[in-house]
């Protein structure tokens, strides 16, 4: 419960009672109806009101998110130390307190109307090192240093946003952008640009008693002409990449076809080699068989006659031979069957 607010409420109520009693006394006196004891009641009400007002003015409750700067007629205009959260006492009527919010605050500068701290286009217009104009949207997240609230009040008198945060932020952004080329700003060095702005802005705000918590580089807008040229460049790069992919695909297809053809050729060669090796093996086997047959015949000449006879049909009785050619092999003797007479034509 805020005790200071309660006491101020009592003081207000006491003043209302005192004023009401005064008005009632005047009205009754005008009608010739004296108000007995009115003077005493009015005096008591005024005393209570003055006491409550004095006590209420001397009790100050500071919120946990605030610090209080005491403007004093007794200590050179301002107390050297700020009031801390909780109940604090000041000299009534000779000192008053200005509260300062120490939580994080965000100041936004945007090209979009109603989005920034100032209505309309409040983006930062800057020029790059190669002469291109860009518009920067940014947010500065900061807070008052709780240990330097009195110093901040003396230096800025509560106008630290208009006199410090805004002008310093815009100046630092312009200086940083001027050190980068247009292509660096929107591509490779954007994070470096944001970090450079944050570092410089941190030092500037610290000199004024503020703490920079973060700098957000929200957007960088280019002129319509440059935006169109960037778009055309990106389209050309995409087409070049697509053409390179097509070439790579055709190369892979050609390589695949070459590998398939090589595989077919290798299979044909392997098959031919296999057939040739099979024929060699077969020829070697046949030659070896003939060598064995020749050795067998060399050692036993009658073996050929025996094989020849074995091949004849078992029941053959008649054989036709040419009359004018010599016999290559001796003819077997034919034994006629019983009851018949062999005849040689």
Counting DSSP H or I runs of 4 or more residues, the number of helices is: 8
Helix vs. strand class: alpha+beta
Average pLDDT reading: 81
Q: Mind describing the biggest β-sheet?
A: 4 strands, antiparallel
The helical percent reads 40-55%
Poorly predicted runs are 339-345
Gap from first CA to last CA: 155 Å
Question: What is the CA-atom radius of gyration, in angstroms?
Answer: 59 Å
Report the β-strand fraction as a percent range: 15-25%
Taken from the alpha-carbon principal axes, the silhouette is rod-shaped
Number of strands: 9
Order of helices and strands: HHEEEEEEEEHHHHEHH
Sum this structure up briefly:
The chain is of the alpha+beta class. 54% of the residues lie in helices and 17% in strands. It has helices at 3-30, 38-58, 149-156, 160-177, 182-188, 190-207, 224-299, 303-311, and strands at 59-62, 66-72, 77-78, 86-89, 95-101, 105-109, 124-127, 133-144, 210-222.
